Amino acid sequence: DAGITQSPRHKVTETGTPVTLRCHQTENHRYMYWYRQDPGHGLRLIHYSYGVKDTDKGEVSDGYSVSRSKTEDFLLTLESATSSQTSVYFCAISDLLGADTQYFGPGTRLTVL
Amino acid sequence: GQSLEQPSEVTAVEGAIVQINCTYQTSGFYGLSWYQQHDGGAPTFLSYNALDGLEETGRFSSFLSRSDSYGYLLLQELQMKDSASYFCAVRDEISSGSARQLTFGSGTQLTVLP
Fold first, then answer.
1. Which position among A3, A39, A58, B89 has the lowest Cβ density within 10 Å, counted as fewest Cβ atoms?
2. Closest CB from A42, A56, A106 relative to B104
3. What residues in A contact B33, CB-CB < 8 Å?
4. Does the distance separating the beta carbons of B102 and A100 come in below 8 Å?
5. CA B110 → CA A26, B20, B43, B69, distances in Å?
6. What is the pLDDT along chain A (113 residues), one digit of tens a residue?
7. How crowded is residue A66: how many other Cβ atoms within 10 Å of its Cβ?
């Protein structure tokens, strides 16, 4: 299994509070992705990174920001969490951009009350 | 834009064969992938087809017809552990730029009965 960890694994927070999710990889893969998964929607891309300090928006980026200061870490921040951001968040990595083989972390279940 | 259609649920018995279909509409097509996800787990890669035809990996096979914008995942000799969600995904351009990213279908929940 690819070495990908996510923290925290579970979080409950209140509307309006900032939240940061962390993805850490030990595979030295260049590309990292954040997805959210909701019932009936599959996985939807939020943001992705193609190198240190290089990031771009995905399909559902509104309300989210990301940062990547080191190859191994990719942070997802909800500046002011809303109930619509209650979801399961998955980080993924690949060694090629848009690669069909992506390796996923264990996920973070976020509940915004 | 892009869209993928797959059945929401499929049920089969242990030892049987099941086929999960996926049709897609994309502005540019580079290949069709399949991922498996058990309840509470992470998606894991199963297979990838870039060209027409059948790819076999053990009990799992995946088929692609580019002219029909259609593919399927075939699971043979079903086992209880195959109960999971299965997602098809296409590599396509995203709206914000030229990068090509994976777009996933909504998933098919496979239930294997004893």
1. A39
2. A42
3. 100-101
4. yes
5. 32, 9, 14, 23
6. 569 999 999 999 999 999 999 999 999 999 999 999 998 778 999 999 988 999 999 889 999 999 999 999 999 999 999 999 999 999 999 887 666 789 999 999 999 99
7. 23
